Amino acid sequence: MEKTSSGRYKVRIWDKHLCKKVYVGTYPTKTAARTAGTQAELRLLTFGHLPEHKDITLVALCDRYIEMNPQLRTSTIDWYANALKKARAFFGDEASVRRMSKEDMQSYVSSLISQKKASKTVVGYLKALGAVFEQAVEWGYRESNPCRKLRNLPENRRADDAIRVLSTTEHARLADSAPGHYRTMVSVWPFIGLRRSEMQGLRWEDVDLVGGRLHVRHQLREDGSLDPNLKTRKSRRTIVMPQNVVNELRKWRLESKPNLLDLVFPTQQGLPQTSKPNFYSWWNKACAKAGLAGCNPHDMRHTFATWSLAAGENPKRVADEMGHEKTSMMLDTYLHLLVDDNVGGTKRLEEWYYSQAATSGMDASTAPIPPLKASNA
After folding, report:
1. Is the distance from CB of 271 to CB of 159 less than 8 angstroms?
2. Are strands 2-3 and 226-227 parallel, antiparallel or unpaired?
């Protein structure tokens, strides 16, 4: 019996006729593993052999995986189906799940890299396939996951030039270029950091203009419906609105007409702003008019994060208001975009240290580390 890295117990027994260890199965507890091992040994003594392990094709396994996980959101299911499509095409319709090896997975990754796929895409496709094989292990089709611990994987890092942060001047131009009905939406967007679907699904009952709070509870689907199932667990959140946002929304509340779903930012006809054609028809025109062709609505979210960090906001609070699961992910994505250098950082540290010394009444000249002086050499 062997404990795997996932905490489960793999059982093998010795078959003297085959002169090798035969795999019995993988079990969640040690008791279940011992019981299965004992039953396998009894069957081997009684019948002289163990039943053959079941197999399944990769195509059938992928279909069954999606079918057996109905709790996944529609967008997540679509993402898995698209990510697994590449693997299904690479290995073929009749590929045996039991016979696939790490070498096969390595070849698959190499093929994706040779197709000039982005590193994030390659890692994402492998992650999807790994989840399917993990399920195959639990269902007894395999002993282990061949997608684990592969070598020479591309670094899962977003390219620096893939993130666009608007300057205050660019944002002002974009807001001025937006059609009048959508100008408030563009104006307040980089101050609250919502995803596009969350912005489109925002309702007036989620906006507390008195308390200055905004509650993210829904996102807009492509069919125009409001979905309470957000992207992640942390996506359901509360955001503290700056006073300028409160003022603009209060003014917009008086100007806007009521609509059936009580949306804050509907179309001019009072309908949900689905991405095509409603949203992008005016968004792309506004970006082109402002000289920001190619600007993505997600760049407003990037702008919120970068502006907040540049303003000295607590990174944990910024991550929470963006709905990120981990603060580290947010910092890895945005911190390098801040215009700064090591000299500036150490200078601020020194200024903070001596300001603390002054506040506490300690003589700066008696501080443990004296101020650095420029050399005359």
Report:
1. no
2. unpaired
Tell me: the pLDDT tens digits for 48-69?
766 656 788 999 999 999 888 8
Chain mean pLDDT for the chain: 83
User: Coil, helix or strand for 69?
Assistant: coil
For residue 192, the SS3 value is coil
Query: Which candidate, 101, 90, 88, places its Cα nearest to that of 60?
Result: 88
**Position 203: which residue type?**
R
The reported pLDDT for the residue numbered 342 is 47
Cβ proximity of 199 and 265 under 8 Å: yes
Rounded Cα–Cα distance for residues 171 and 174 (Å): 5
Rounded to 10 deg, the angle between the 58-67 and 74-91 helix axes is 170
Residue 212: its pLDDT value, please? 94
Instruction: Round to whole Å and give the CA distance between 57 and 69.
Output: 18
Buried b (16+ CB within 10 A) or exposed e, 150-189: eeeebeeeeeeeebbbbeeebbebbbebbeebbbbbbbbb
8 A C-beta contact, residue 134 and residue 145: yes
Distance in angstroms (rounded) separating the CA atoms of residues 331 and 302:
12
Spacing of C-alpha 257 from chain mean position: 35
Strands (E), 163-242: 207-208, 213-216, 219-220, 226-227, 237-240
Asked whether the beta carbons of 303 and 166 are under 8 A apart, the reply is yes
